[in-house]
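New to this. Comment on this protein:
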Amino acid sequence: MAKKLVIKVTAGADAPERCSQAFTVAAVAAASGVDVSLWLTGESAWFALPGRAEEFELPHAAPLPDLIASIMASGRITLCTQCAARRDITEKDVIEGVRIAGAQVFVQEALGEDTQALVY
């Protein structure tokens, strides 16, 4: 089993099941002791902002704010630099603990030893 899991989620409210799957897998992995790094790209970038996860609804799915809290308790959430810029999101706008970083950091994480990467 990988010691680190890097997940890139591209979907947001536009594809709620895919979005929820990414957050659920990340939260379950984090709760299982896996070092998790969740990357928010594309439409999922909006979930880096306070209050946005509370607006997300998907029947029979765990609430997104709960999943985010679980991930952040032992893992990391990163907002893509370019995705943030396209949406005029800055570091002062995001939820405390969310970092903004670019492709170079993603590649470093994804290619790390004992790392598994997933894209949703």
In short: The mean pLDDT is 96. The chain has four helices and five strands.
